[in-house]
């Protein structure tokens, strides 16, 4: 079995099999960006600066581990789906709040 057949979409897109160093860095950055988006849309609250720094440091550390899984498992793809669902939820929530303001 060829290893390129088992790569996920983003791993194949960044050609992790041909250029592992650059491909893994691009995959790592992609996973970090997607994790930050999902965190901000779904879980983030207003916190003091030091607590935000600690949270994002642990988030980036966790993304390091997730990047290794993302080569063969659909981690980044799942984060894209989660981000899309949360974006749709936020849009619908905003529309509902706007509609309630106009009713009152």
Automatic annotation (TrEMBL):
Membrane-crossing residue ranges in chain numbering: 22-41, 53-72
Family annotation (InterPro entries): YlaH (IPR025620)
Keywords annotated in UniProt: Membrane, Transmembrane, Transmembrane helix
UniProt protein name: Membrane protein YlaH
Native source species: Robertmurraya siralis
Gene encoding the protein: ylaH
